[in-house]
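I'll show a record.
***
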Amino acid sequence: MVSQCYSGPPSPCGSSSATTSPASSPAPPGTATLDPNWQATKPTVRERNAAMFNNQLMSDITFIVGAPGHTKIIPAHKYVLATASSVFYAMFYGGLAECKQEIEVPDVEPSAFLALLKYIYCDEIQLEADTVLSTLYVAKKYIVPHLAKACVNYLETSLTAKNACLLLSQSRLFEEPELMQRCWEVIDAQAEMALTSEGFVDIDMSTLESVLARETLNCKEINLFESALAWAHAECMRRDIDPSPINKRAMLGNAIYLIRFPTMSLEEFANSAAQLGILTPQETIDIFLHFTACSKPMLSYPIKSRAGLKAQICHRFQSCAYRSNQWRYRGRCDSIQFCVDKRIFVVGFGLYGSSNGAADYNVKIELKRLGRVLAENNTKFFSDGSSNTFHVYFENPIQIEPEYFYTASAILDGSELSYFGQEGLSEVYMGTVTFQFHCSSESTNGTGVQGGQIPELIYYGPTICAPAIKNSSPNED
């Protein structure tokens, strides 16, 4: 058995059936070499090796891959495999070499095993969303680091709030610290979205405890409690037991003591946690006393709120001004393009307000990429007539990938005259993140790199020491 040589990390596949995708399905064994003179048509070593991929011709080893009842027979060639993997070399040529002609591999999905062989024989990497985790598993199992790295890169680029918790769980199994860190960045910034994703209820207990213990989660405690209950309900279903309050509490175990009930509002606690039967009567009474009594009882639950994430602000203007005929709003759009060199999460924009006394504004803000709206919000803000900026926020933070241009837009309706920025910068260095700004063709109200509206981008990102100016923008045409 392969597992006798190297067991690899815990399999993400379990006993689920595997379906080989069309992209990774080879021709039937032997069909690639029906021509008796096939070698003459393959001028390179790569082409000749590729002709042997999943081919019975000259095959000296056969793998029976997949869980019982869902197996696939895959022919291979010991020499080719041994040149690509130290595990295969030990299996076929080492001191404890296998003498079998057939080797069972029940812990690997056939599609993932074929992806491994495709890389070994053809020097090609074909990854798909539904098989990349199982491919990473098999690459780790047989110590093929370049393929494993390609899988990790694929997962990082496809990382979103919807899959971050599940990928965190898998990255812990695979011992991929960089991928884990990327997952935590997404979970921290977009916690509410991550905690309500479908995959959250499928994470393992260790990952659940790590999430509940996280100090930097950017969400309300009531939302964290509700997600923990959803996980406990799913765990009851997996164990085929009644999802009663007592059983849910049992599934959570000591993880429940990581939930910070005392940091909820009194109304949130009274209308939810206090009535669901998860807490004992004495715990419920003690938490109510913590909210209301002068002499507060000792609690088994943390009483300090989570720190969350501290929003950072990128200022793109060095000064602001006002004139008697500027800055006017008549339903026109102020817009600017930007890109960053590190992943960040945009929270909202800072905007200028009235230069002619106090005024109310209606504002629509948008964030786009390649013309597609990623987020928008219609809201209001009150301007006190000072040159201070006023912050408007999106409902959820938006993930911004490095090296892509995004468009920030705002349409204001209110006082005719407002402050506007000047001495704009084309590049701003915020510690470990560099912002670049370009003019946007969507800007119909005069905003550009050197001057106008949207003076600030509010975001979550790597911690900074102090912002620095790298260079100011060239004059606009």
In short: DSSP finds 14 helices and 15 strands in the chain.
